[in-house]
Design goal:
The protein has 5 helices and 11 strands. It is α/β, with parallel strands linked by helices and 200 residues long. Strands 1, 2, 3, 4, 5, 6, 7, 8, 9, 10 and 11 form an 11-stranded mixed beta sheet that branches. Its EC number is 2.7.7.87.
Length: 200
């Protein structure tokens, strides 16, 4: 990662491809690897809730963050000046992941800054739950970390990826991608914190 490489990693939802978010060349490599539209943002991944404050402006209680993270949820918040300007330059927001996966948390803690994280698949193709499912990407990766099958390979729900929720507007939330943890996430946001869904 420190040499600018792209690494395939297991997470708590699907396989991902990670690079150092502060390395602009590596971020460009992720887009070309996936054949991804440059206007589609990448999430960042950190190891602990405390580290999220450095890269985001948070306008929800710390307890709310800790109720959802680590877990299969991506929280979309206002980005801070600390974050690489070349990462998602077209938006003032950034999605943050803290996967509930010991390897990923250790890896994120060992890195000097956040990881940029995206699913290990070509854009518009299905998410992957084993390393063999994305072997067409292997030649362009510096390393593939095989954490074994993730979840239930037979279950379509397992391939949904994380639930993506925008918390950038005070007192409100909007679901950007339902993902695999929609019901529990919405329940926490509404019942415990009284946030209201933003009318789309």
């Amino acid at each position: 990662l420190q040499a600018g490489g792209l690494v395939a990693v297991p997470t708590d939802t699907v396989y991902g491809v990670a690079c150092l978010a502060q390395d602009s060349a590596a971020v460009r490599s992720i887009y070309s690897l996936k054949g991804r539209n440059g206007a589609k943002p990448l999430a960042i991944c950190v190891g602990d809730v405390e580290r999220l404050y450095r890269y985001c402006h948070v306008n929800v209680p710390d307890e709310l963050l800790r109720d959802l993270l680590p877990g299969p949820v991506t929280l979309v918040l206002q980005r801070s000046e600390e974050l690489n300007k070349d990462l998602n330059p077209f938006t003032s927001l950034v999605g943050v992941r803290i996967p509930d996966h010991p390897f990923m948390r250790d890896l994120a803690r060992a890195c000097p800054g956040p990881l940029a994280l995206t699913s290990a698949n070509l854009s518009s193709q299905g998410s992957t739950l084993t390393v063999l499912e994305f072997q067409d990407l292997w030649p362009q990766l510096s390393l593939v970390v095989d954490g074994g099958p993730i979840g239930d390979i037979q279950s379509p729900e397992c391939r949904l990826g994380s639930t993506v929720v925008d918390l950038s507007v005070s007192g409100k939330f909007s679901i950007i991608r339902p993902g695999c943890a929609l019901t529990s996430t919405v329940e926490i946001l509404k019942k415990k914190y009284g946030l209201v869904p933003e009318s789309s």
